[in-house]
Protein backbone atom coordinates (compact mmCIF):
# COMPACT_ATOMS: atom_id res chain seq x y z
CA UNK A 1 0.00 0.00 0.00
CA UNK A 2 1.72 3.25 -1.11
CA UNK A 3 1.85 6.47 0.88
CA UNK A 4 -1.12 8.47 -0.46
CA UNK A 5 -1.71 11.08 2.25
CA UNK A 6 0.37 14.03 3.47
CA UNK A 7 3.99 13.55 4.47
CA UNK A 8 5.05 13.13 8.10
CA UNK A 9 6.02 16.78 8.65
CA UNK A 10 2.75 18.12 7.26
CA UNK A 11 0.71 15.58 9.20
CA UNK A 12 2.30 16.59 12.49
CA UNK A 13 0.85 20.10 12.08
CA UNK A 14 -2.38 19.24 10.30
CA UNK A 15 -5.18 20.95 12.24
CA UNK A 16 -8.04 21.82 9.88
CA UNK A 17 -10.75 24.22 10.92
CA UNK A 18 -13.56 22.08 12.26
CA UNK A 19 -16.23 23.92 14.23
CA UNK A 20 -18.77 21.68 15.95
CA UNK A 21 -22.48 22.32 15.48
CA UNK A 22 -23.68 25.11 17.75
CA UNK A 23 -25.91 22.72 19.71
CA UNK A 24 -23.43 19.81 19.81
CA UNK A 25 -23.10 19.75 23.61
CA UNK A 26 -26.82 20.17 24.24
CA UNK A 27 -27.60 17.44 21.69
CA UNK A 28 -25.37 14.91 23.41
CA UNK A 29 -26.29 15.90 26.96
CA UNK A 30 -29.95 15.51 26.06
CA UNK A 31 -29.26 12.17 24.41
CA UNK A 32 -27.47 10.77 27.47
CA UNK A 33 -30.04 12.21 29.87
CA UNK A 34 -32.80 10.54 27.90
CA UNK A 35 -31.01 7.18 27.88
CA UNK A 36 -30.27 7.31 31.62
CA UNK A 37 -33.87 8.22 32.38
CA UNK A 38 -34.99 4.91 30.89
CA UNK A 39 -33.43 3.13 33.87
CA UNK A 40 -32.70 -0.57 33.79
CA UNK A 41 -30.41 -2.82 35.80
CA UNK A 42 -26.94 -4.10 35.00
CA UNK A 43 -26.98 -7.90 35.06
CA UNK A 44 -24.18 -10.44 34.89
CA UNK A 45 -23.99 -14.23 34.75
CA UNK A 46 -20.78 -16.15 35.54
CA UNK A 47 -19.94 -18.30 32.49
CA UNK A 48 -16.28 -19.16 33.06
CA UNK A 49 -16.81 -22.93 33.05
CA UNK A 50 -18.60 -22.76 29.71
CA UNK A 51 -15.32 -21.71 28.07
CA UNK A 52 -13.00 -24.01 30.09
CA UNK A 53 -10.88 -21.11 31.35
CA UNK A 54 -8.85 -21.50 34.55
CA UNK A 55 -6.96 -18.25 35.05
CA UNK A 56 -9.72 -15.84 34.00
CA UNK A 57 -13.23 -15.22 35.32
CA UNK A 58 -15.87 -14.39 32.68
CA UNK A 59 -19.28 -12.80 33.18
CA UNK A 60 -21.86 -12.45 30.44
CA UNK A 61 -23.18 -8.91 31.08
CA UNK A 62 -26.23 -6.95 29.96
CA UNK A 63 -26.49 -3.22 30.66
CA UNK A 64 -29.04 -0.60 29.55
CA UNK A 65 -27.93 1.42 26.53
CA UNK A 66 -29.79 3.58 24.04
CA UNK A 67 -33.46 3.87 24.98
CA UNK A 68 -32.81 1.51 27.89
CA UNK A 69 -32.29 -1.38 25.44
CA UNK A 70 -30.01 -4.17 26.75
CA UNK A 71 -26.47 -4.18 25.39
CA UNK A 72 -24.28 -7.28 25.63
CA UNK A 73 -20.74 -7.24 27.02
CA UNK A 74 -18.12 -9.61 28.37
CA UNK A 75 -16.49 -8.86 31.71
CA UNK A 76 -13.14 -10.60 32.10
CA UNK A 77 -10.76 -10.41 35.09
CA UNK A 78 -7.96 -12.45 36.62
CA UNK A 79 -9.12 -15.47 38.59
CA UNK A 80 -9.04 -14.76 42.32
CA UNK A 81 -8.24 -11.06 41.99
CA UNK A 82 -8.78 -9.08 45.18
CA UNK A 83 -9.64 -5.41 45.64
CA UNK A 84 -10.80 -3.02 42.95
CA UNK A 85 -9.23 -3.50 39.53
CA UNK A 86 -8.63 -0.83 36.89
CA UNK A 87 -10.94 -1.62 34.00
CA UNK A 88 -10.27 -1.39 30.28
CA UNK A 89 -13.53 -0.73 28.43
CA UNK A 90 -13.03 -2.01 24.89
CA UNK A 91 -15.05 -1.01 21.82
CA UNK A 92 -15.03 -3.08 18.64
CA UNK A 93 -14.05 -2.35 15.04
CA UNK A 94 -16.54 -1.95 12.22
CA UNK A 95 -18.76 -4.93 11.32
CA UNK A 96 -17.68 -6.86 14.42
CA UNK A 97 -19.28 -7.62 17.77
CA UNK A 98 -17.98 -8.77 21.13
CA UNK A 99 -17.33 -12.26 19.72
CA UNK A 100 -16.25 -14.88 22.27
CA UNK A 101 -14.48 -14.20 25.57
CA UNK A 102 -11.57 -16.38 24.43
CA UNK A 103 -10.77 -13.65 21.88
CA UNK A 104 -10.13 -11.09 24.64
CA UNK A 105 -7.63 -12.55 27.12
CA UNK A 106 -4.79 -10.02 26.91
CA UNK A 107 -5.91 -7.42 29.46
CA UNK A 108 -6.90 -9.96 32.11
CA UNK A 109 -3.52 -11.67 31.60
CA UNK A 110 -1.94 -8.30 32.41
CA UNK A 111 -3.98 -8.04 35.62
CA UNK A 112 -6.74 -5.70 34.46
CA UNK A 113 -10.49 -6.16 34.32
CA UNK A 114 -11.88 -5.73 30.82
CA UNK A 115 -15.41 -4.90 29.69
CA UNK A 116 -15.82 -5.83 26.00
CA UNK A 117 -18.83 -3.98 24.57
CA UNK A 118 -20.94 -5.41 21.75
CA UNK A 119 -21.77 -3.13 18.79
CA UNK A 120 -25.51 -3.00 18.18
CA UNK A 121 -26.50 -4.50 14.85
CA UNK A 122 -22.91 -5.40 14.02
CA UNK A 123 -22.48 -8.16 16.57
CA UNK A 124 -24.90 -11.03 17.09
CA UNK A 125 -26.02 -10.24 20.65
CA UNK A 126 -27.36 -6.65 20.51
CA UNK A 127 -29.95 -5.81 17.83
CA UNK A 128 -30.35 -2.34 16.38
CA UNK A 129 -33.72 -0.72 15.80
CA UNK A 130 -33.44 2.01 13.15
CA UNK A 131 -35.08 5.34 13.93
CA UNK A 132 -37.15 7.55 11.64
CA UNK A 133 -38.32 5.85 8.46
CA UNK A 134 -35.63 3.17 8.83
CA UNK A 135 -34.18 3.88 5.38
CA UNK A 136 -30.97 1.95 4.65
CA UNK A 137 -29.46 3.71 1.66
CA UNK A 138 -26.43 1.48 1.03
CA UNK A 139 -25.04 -1.66 2.59
CA UNK A 140 -23.45 -1.05 6.00
CA UNK A 141 -24.16 1.36 8.84
CA UNK A 142 -22.76 4.71 7.71
CA UNK A 143 -25.96 5.89 6.03
CA UNK A 144 -28.45 4.29 8.43
CA UNK A 145 -30.54 7.26 9.57
CA UNK A 146 -28.32 9.71 7.66
CA UNK A 147 -31.32 12.04 7.21
CA UNK A 148 -30.81 13.60 10.66
CA UNK A 149 -28.56 13.50 13.76
CA UNK A 150 -31.49 12.26 15.83
CA UNK A 151 -31.96 9.20 13.61
CA UNK A 152 -28.36 8.35 12.78
CA UNK A 153 -27.00 4.94 13.74
CA UNK A 154 -23.96 6.30 15.57
CA UNK A 155 -26.11 8.31 17.96
CA UNK A 156 -27.38 4.99 19.27
CA UNK A 157 -24.03 3.21 19.28
CA UNK A 158 -22.15 6.07 20.97
CA UNK A 159 -24.87 6.22 23.62
CA UNK A 160 -24.39 2.49 24.27
CA UNK A 161 -20.65 3.06 24.65
CA UNK A 162 -21.09 5.89 27.15
CA UNK A 163 -23.59 3.82 29.12
CA UNK A 164 -21.00 1.03 29.32
CA UNK A 165 -18.88 3.37 31.46
CA UNK A 166 -21.95 4.08 33.59
CA UNK A 167 -22.33 0.32 34.07
CA UNK A 168 -18.82 -0.06 35.52
CA UNK A 169 -19.98 1.46 38.83
CA UNK A 170 -22.58 -1.30 39.17
CA UNK A 171 -20.27 -4.24 38.49
CA UNK A 172 -18.38 -5.77 41.44
CA UNK A 173 -14.61 -5.59 41.71
CA UNK A 174 -14.10 -2.67 39.31
CA UNK A 175 -12.50 0.68 40.14
CA UNK A 176 -14.73 3.38 38.67
CA UNK A 177 -11.94 5.91 39.24
CA UNK A 178 -9.57 4.04 36.91
CA UNK A 179 -11.49 3.50 33.70
CA UNK A 180 -9.52 3.29 30.45
CA UNK A 181 -11.45 3.39 27.16
CA UNK A 182 -9.91 1.93 24.04
CA UNK A 183 -10.48 0.26 20.70
CA UNK A 184 -9.17 0.01 17.18
CA UNK A 185 -10.62 1.66 14.08
CA UNK A 186 -14.35 2.12 14.83
CA UNK A 187 -13.54 1.18 18.43
CA UNK A 188 -10.98 3.97 18.55
CA UNK A 189 -13.50 6.51 17.29
CA UNK A 190 -16.00 5.32 19.88
CA UNK A 191 -13.38 5.62 22.64
CA UNK A 192 -12.74 9.22 21.58
CA UNK A 193 -16.46 9.94 21.67
CA UNK A 194 -16.81 8.55 25.19
CA UNK A 195 -13.78 10.51 26.40
CA UNK A 196 -15.29 13.70 25.00
CA UNK A 197 -18.70 13.03 26.51
CA UNK A 198 -17.73 11.83 29.98
CA UNK A 199 -14.75 14.02 30.79
CA UNK A 200 -13.05 13.28 34.10
CA UNK A 201 -14.89 9.99 34.52
CA UNK A 202 -12.40 8.57 32.01
CA UNK A 203 -8.88 8.14 33.39
CA UNK A 204 -7.23 7.49 30.02
CA UNK A 205 -8.13 6.90 26.38
CA UNK A 206 -6.27 4.85 23.76
CA UNK A 207 -7.72 5.25 20.23
CA UNK A 208 -5.85 2.92 17.88
CA UNK A 209 -5.95 3.97 14.18
CA UNK A 210 -9.33 5.61 14.92
CA UNK A 211 -12.23 5.72 12.48
CA UNK A 212 -15.08 8.30 12.52
CA UNK A 213 -12.75 11.32 12.32
CA UNK A 214 -12.79 14.30 9.93
CA UNK A 215 -15.48 12.92 7.62
CA UNK A 216 -15.21 15.65 5.01
CA UNK A 217 -11.62 14.67 4.19
CA UNK A 218 -12.02 10.96 4.85
CA UNK A 219 -14.64 10.46 2.17
CA UNK A 220 -12.37 12.16 -0.37
CA UNK A 221 -9.28 10.00 0.12
CA UNK A 222 -10.16 6.71 1.88
CA UNK A 223 -9.87 3.96 -0.72
CA UNK A 224 -11.14 1.09 1.40
CA UNK A 225 -13.46 0.40 4.31
CA UNK A 226 -16.66 2.09 5.49
CA UNK A 227 -16.08 5.68 4.33
CA UNK A 228 -16.83 4.72 0.68
CA UNK A 229 -20.36 3.85 1.82
CA UNK A 230 -20.92 7.59 2.19
CA UNK A 231 -19.38 8.20 -1.24
CA UNK A 232 -21.71 5.65 -2.80
CA UNK A 233 -24.69 7.34 -1.18
CA UNK A 234 -23.64 10.83 -2.28
CA UNK A 235 -22.93 9.62 -5.81
CA UNK A 236 -26.69 9.22 -6.19
CA UNK A 237 -27.72 12.16 -4.00
CA UNK A 238 -25.14 14.80 -4.88
CA UNK A 239 -27.79 17.26 -6.02
CA UNK A 240 -29.58 17.73 -2.72
CA UNK A 241 -28.09 15.66 0.13
CA UNK A 242 -24.43 16.68 0.48
CA UNK A 243 -24.71 19.38 3.13
CA UNK A 244 -27.44 17.53 5.01
CA UNK A 245 -25.25 14.42 5.09
CA UNK A 246 -22.22 16.20 6.50
CA UNK A 247 -24.40 18.18 8.90
CA UNK A 248 -25.56 14.85 10.35
CA UNK A 249 -22.04 13.40 10.49
CA UNK A 250 -20.76 16.51 12.28
CA UNK A 251 -22.57 15.28 15.41
CA UNK A 252 -20.56 12.03 15.49
CA UNK A 253 -17.19 13.31 14.26
CA UNK A 254 -14.26 12.31 16.45
CA UNK A 255 -12.63 15.71 15.91
CA UNK A 256 -15.47 17.37 17.81
CA UNK A 257 -15.29 14.86 20.64
CA UNK A 258 -11.52 15.31 20.78
CA UNK A 259 -12.01 19.05 21.21
CA UNK A 260 -13.81 18.25 24.49
CA UNK A 261 -11.68 15.37 25.82
CA UNK A 262 -9.10 16.02 28.54
CA UNK A 263 -7.97 12.57 29.77
CA UNK A 264 -4.42 11.44 28.96
CA UNK A 265 -4.53 9.99 25.44
CA UNK A 266 -2.42 7.56 23.42
CA UNK A 267 -3.27 7.69 19.71
CA UNK A 268 -1.78 5.51 17.03
CA UNK A 269 -1.65 6.17 13.30
CA UNK A 270 -0.53 4.13 10.30
CA UNK A 271 0.86 6.27 7.51
CA UNK A 272 -0.14 3.81 4.74
CA UNK A 273 -3.66 3.24 6.04
CA UNK A 274 -6.25 3.19 3.20
CA UNK A 275 -9.20 2.81 5.61
CA UNK A 276 -8.52 5.59 8.13
CA UNK A 277 -6.11 7.93 6.35
CA UNK A 278 -3.42 9.43 8.54
CA UNK A 279 -4.60 13.02 8.07
CA UNK A 280 -8.00 12.16 9.56
CA UNK A 281 -6.32 10.73 12.66
CA UNK A 282 -4.04 13.76 13.03
CA UNK A 283 -7.04 16.06 12.64
CA UNK A 284 -8.46 14.58 15.85
CA UNK A 285 -5.08 14.36 17.60
CA UNK A 286 -4.14 17.98 16.91
CA UNK A 287 -7.55 19.18 18.12
CA UNK A 288 -7.40 17.09 21.31
CA UNK A 289 -8.06 19.32 24.32
CA UNK A 290 -5.99 17.45 26.92
CA UNK A 291 -2.34 18.36 27.43
CA UNK A 292 -1.10 14.79 27.95
CA UNK A 293 -1.32 13.45 24.41
CA UNK A 294 0.95 10.99 22.65
CA UNK A 295 0.98 9.70 19.08
CA UNK A 296 2.52 6.35 18.14
CA UNK A 297 3.39 6.41 14.43
CA UNK A 298 3.65 3.24 12.33
CA UNK A 299 5.24 4.66 9.13
CA UNK A 300 4.97 1.57 6.91
CA UNK A 301 1.77 0.08 8.32
CA UNK A 302 -1.67 -0.22 6.79
CA UNK A 303 -4.91 -0.39 8.82
CA UNK A 304 -3.42 -3.11 11.00
CA UNK A 305 -1.31 -0.42 12.65
CA UNK A 306 1.28 -1.81 15.03
CA UNK A 307 -0.36 -5.26 15.11
CA UNK A 308 1.29 -7.26 17.91
CA UNK A 309 3.42 -4.29 18.98
CA UNK A 310 0.37 -2.26 20.02
CA UNK A 311 -0.54 -4.01 23.33
CA UNK A 312 2.94 -3.76 24.93
CA UNK A 313 3.12 -0.11 23.83
CA UNK A 314 -0.19 0.53 25.55
CA UNK A 315 0.87 -1.31 28.72
CA UNK A 316 4.03 0.76 28.99
CA UNK A 317 2.12 4.00 28.46
CA UNK A 318 -0.45 3.12 31.15
CA UNK A 319 2.34 2.19 33.58
CA UNK A 320 3.96 5.59 33.07
CA UNK A 321 0.68 7.14 34.23
CA UNK A 322 0.23 4.90 37.23
CA UNK A 323 -2.73 3.05 35.72
CA UNK A 324 -1.62 -0.45 36.62
CA UNK A 325 -3.31 -3.16 38.70
CA UNK A 326 -2.32 -3.07 42.33
CA UNK A 327 -0.11 -6.01 43.43
Automatic annotation (TrEMBL):
GO terms under biological process: polysaccharide metabolic process
Residue span(s) of domain Acetyl xylan esterase: 1-319
Pfam families (UniProt xref): AXE1 (PF05448)
One Gene Ontology molecular-function label: carboxylic ester hydrolase activity
Protein name according to UniProt: Cephalosporin-C deacetylase
Enzyme active site: 185 (nucleophile), 273 (charge relay system), 303 (charge relay system)
Gene3D superfamilies: alpha/beta hydrolase (3.40.50.1820)
Domain of life: Bacteria
Binding site for substrate: 94
Organism whose genome encodes this protein: Streptacidiphilus jiangxiensis
Signal peptide coordinates: none
